[in-house]
Amino acid sequence: MSIFAIVFFVLILMAIYHHIGYMAVLKLMNSMKNNSVGEVKPSDNQTETPTIAILMCAYNEAEYIEEKLHNLGSLLYPNHKYDIHIYFDGCTDNTYELAKSVSYQLESNNVHCNLHLQIENKGKTAGLNTLISMTRDRYDILVFTDVSALLSIDALNKIEQDFRDNAVAVSTGQYTLQDSAPISQQSYWQYQNTLKRLESNVGAVIGVPGAMFAVRSELVTVLEPNAINDDFILSMRALAHGGNAIINDEVVMYECDCDDQVQDYTRRERVGAGNWQQIKLLMPLMNFKLGWTSINFLSHKVLRGLMPILLLGMYLALIAEVIIYQTQWSMIVSSGLLAVHLTSLFKFLFNTKKRLVILDQIAYVLNSYWIALIGIVKFEYGYFDSPWKRVSSATTRCNGVKCAKRVLDIIGASVGILLVSPIMLGAAMAIKLSSKGPVLFKQLRVGESTDEFVSLFYVYKFRSMVVDAEAKSGAVWASKNDPRITPIGSFLRKTRIDELPQLWNVLIGEMSLIGPRPERPVFYAKLEKSIPYFCHRTYGLKPGISGLAQVMNGYDESVEDARSKIGWDYAYVLSMSSPLSWIKMEFTILFKTIQVVVLGKGQ
Fold first, then answer.
1. What is the CA angle 46-48-51, rounded to 5?
2. pTM summary value
3. Could you give the CA distance from residue 343 to residue 460 in angstroms, rounded to a whole number?
4. pLDDT, position 79
5. Backbone dihedral region of 477: left (phi > 0), alpha (psi from -120 to 50 degrees) or beta?
6. How far apart are CA 108 and CA 7, in angstroms?
7. Of 3, 124, 367, 459, which has the fewest CB atoms closer than 10 Å, so is most exposed?
8. Phi and psi angles of residue 218, each rounded to the nearest 5 degrees, phi first
9. What letter would DSSP give residue 241?
């Protein structure tokens, strides 16, 4: 058995344990517990009804805020024993005005609703920290909930009963989606609810739905400013003192805001980053003195955070096994995975609603982990330091073609790096032996632009010119027979091998495989002034290693070259208005790019 096969099967076993084996262990432990002891009832040692603060952060929630407040105002808990606190985080719609109107009605019924208005968007973490600081010392229990989730009418009563047991630190309920939610999301939450119920029976629910969870106030701590999965961090830190987390089947959270598949994948990117972050933040939970809390944390959340990286390792090991050894098992497995991904892509492109239950579930899990891998990479590069936005808002709604394009970029860049690594190694050795200076060359380029910003990033290439090529001339376009180009560099540019390090730019989300050419900032102002609408070519679109303009015109040598190429760039952008025209254009450019590389038609 090859080293690639060993790596693949070890990673597969870890994935099977995380998704299937862990639940089987919990079921076994639950059956042993049920056979050995009777039902354990909480001790009724509380003489006074505890006070409860319901905490919410709101950012542009006009669609749900009124219904949510009416829902909270109708809860059966004694009115004088619970208060509602809402932090309005720089809303740009009329969420605050709607909440203020409903709060007057609630106050007339002796339900206290405290509105905390923040003019500037500070982020959800800042909002939660503000609410925690104001309420932690005034209430016995803090209930965190989302504006878009409705609670069963006796939710607070059930929570109060749970907390009569002094061992309980965290309590949550059953998370329920609308019937219109995609089947893959419904299956995911059915699995999660079953898993959390099993964890609850050993007093160690790992992770709670942000829709609603309750924590003893003395166990709540403020969050780090850059915390992503706030619900998980708040609940799990409460368990670090040795308490239990349970799920109450009689408490129901009904989610009104149902994401479509594309929006859900967008959310998965942030969740992936959060899962990665919480491994670092919650290291104390790996202390085995905490019993099941530690075991569940390692089996559930640590492995969940690592799964995108494990999946990448599995794919790379499988591809290597297919290429080098062509074993029968690797051909069968890779064909099966290819069929899953192609079917998923076909369903997306043709917008078919036909359900293929098992295949859809497998595709959802795999695609979610690939999206989560993007989140991990972005987290390490500081992409999640900005304030929160609603996934479903117009400013953050993911375009379907762009989402599919990003998935293809990740898979293509990962496979590409593996396949061309021998070529890149040979190029690096040739550069090092033929001329003085570094192997790699980085240069500042202009990336994707939006209404709010224009991104800048460093593009990586194999050095094809002499060191300090622009020391005397300053920034100038390369030209044919350019004396600054080394002999090896000439070959690298003709075959476009010099562009291969940009696969890393693609993998971390700065570039795409296919897109407009990234220009240098020093030329950008001149081009924008000379060519009408030049800056719009990368509006909402990442620049690419290759593109329609690149394969049709080659490298730019002047403003006129750039002018002649802009029409090709806009033709590519227009193709993205339709999934079918985009996929046809994408593969046409890919085919032409291969022609350029094989025939050496680059500059």
1. 110
2. 0.65
3. 34
4. 94
5. beta
6. 65
7. 3
8. -70, -10
9. T
